What we know:
mainly alpha, 0% strand, elongated
Amino acid sequence: xxxxxxxxxxxxxxxxxxxxxxxxxxxxxxxxxxxxxxxxxxxxxxxxxxxxxxxxxxxxxxxxxxxxxxxxxxxxxxxxxxxxxxxxxxxxxxxxxxxxxxxxxxxxxxxxxxxxxxxxxxx
Length: 123
């Protein structure tokens, strides 16, 4: 598990740079934050599925994409909910709000991917 977590962190950095860059680009284009998160999430799912699946969990099973998408739907919901809360409490800078959420959402993503998507079968 320790090796997977370390691999997840390194792969996560790559995936985060990719996803956050898309998010920031869409915010720059004056998209609503919920649409910016949705678009960056959709574009990142396939890229992240392959990098996390192969490099972290050693999986080449493409049939797991549906579970992976379900995890991303949960992460999307959490992301939007917390961005809304930040805005509600007066934190208007969506760039900073997005950065603040990176670590906690990464932890939730790792746990859900390990337990739900790329779980190993025990005999």
